[in-house]
Amino acid sequence: MMLRRSSAVATLFCAGLCCIGCGQGHPDPVYEPAPPDMSALIATYDSPTGTFDPEFMPEVRSAARDIARRIRTIGVGDLLLGLVHDATVALVGAGAERTDGGFFQARRACSGWEQQLDPTALGGNGRVELTMAYSQWGLDAVAWGEVIACEYLAQERRILLYGLDSTVAGAVRLSFGRPVTFNRVAERPVLIDLDATVEVDDSPEPADFDFRIDQTSLALELRIAVADGDVIVQISEDEPTGVRAANGDFPLDQ
Predict the structure, then answer these.
(1) Maximum CA extent, the chain
(2) How many structural domains compose the chain?
(3) What is the reported pTM?
(4) Residue 109 above 50 pLDDT?
């Protein structure tokens, strides 16, 4: 556990933002949970470890298309980043930039399949929870939390997100790569690591993958395993366009 002398804890209920305790100093030490270590995953995205063999281009392209399809279908990027952005707005509105920093817990009730959301209810349709640390300048690099039996609609399809092995809560981690100022949160690329199961219109499939999204262009990077490590596949408009690997960069022909 890490100790910060001045810390504030906030709870965010979306929609209908309500921030409790943001921007208020605490007279006594407050123990802050340590964020998960994402350094190894970040390093793989920045410097891929696997060797790309063009002979296996069809297999790599197929694996990347499958993950990109699932990301698009379940809309998990929108779900998580929407909470991050709303929470940041609430923090700034509560005066977080005038404190020494701290951490807060953001919670969002999932909208359900009928999309009749009660902003005060965090139970019926499931919820998303994120722990986010901040300084007076902006958010820390890593946020983490859970998607808990979360029901919502994406592209007019019924989505249910829950944990691996039929557990209720799936784990999620996000990283901006480095601390980011409040006014740049919506611009920085974000690495998202999801350990969950998804049901799309009652059909279950794994949602155990990670990806990095450029929030400006919406381009994706996906980690694909090869014989000697991982390569990073670049996706634009749902199609693989290139591979970054330990042995160089390669275009992917359509």
Answers:
(1) 63
(2) 1
(3) 0.86
(4) yes
